[in-house]
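Dear colleague,

Following up on yesterday's call, I've attached the two folding results inline so they're easy to grep. Please treat them as preliminary; we haven't cross-checked anything against experimental data yet. The first protein's sequence and structure tokens come first.
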Amino acid sequence: MEKLDYYKEPSTTDKPEPINFALNSDGVEEDMVNHPSHYQSMDKEHNIECIDAMIAAFGRYEVAVFCKLNAFKYLWRASSKGGNMDINKTQWYLNKYKELGGEDQ
């Protein structure tokens, strides 16, 4: 796939954008795109994120498809609901899709 001129490859050293952060119900600031607390297990001792439990339960292929579809959803609604945070979530799901093998499966 050809990269467009305005596409910037995500860097692992880039800091999350401030738009990603919000106060949770305890008044603590958290990253709502990369590690929102509502997608972590209730068992704080093991701290398992939902996406990791999904991979264990359904396998990499199924979760990769889920990530691709979720990216589509967040991009679709970005202009009418979540704005830049939805764009960042789109990128997160596309990165996870590629990490899980994406089209290579």
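Below is the second protein, in the same order (sequence, then structure):
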Amino acid sequence: MAKPTELQRHDAQDRDLGELQDRLAEFAQQVSECPLLVGNTVEDIAIVAGTPETVYHKLDRTPEGWLVVRRSASAVVFESGTFDATEITLDASANVTVTVWVY
């Protein structure tokens, strides 16, 4: 997902409109800097407990982190190595298939 572009400002003599535009621009800047919004979903990762699974995330940068968004069983999923610009390594407490959001 691409980051939002800069807001287009409308030139107006209305002071309230100018303040609103300033606040919206500030808010949009804060949102665009949130690392959670720029990532990839990786689906159907089958993890065998105790066997690290390499996940190719396609971010072309080292991720800030990852979140499990779906899992097929009650298992704790955890990092099992370091992140790099192409992959992360995950493991689990039980056999499980997961979908993760890598950001």
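For the second protein, one point worth flagging: Helices lie at 15-32.

Best wishes,
A.L.
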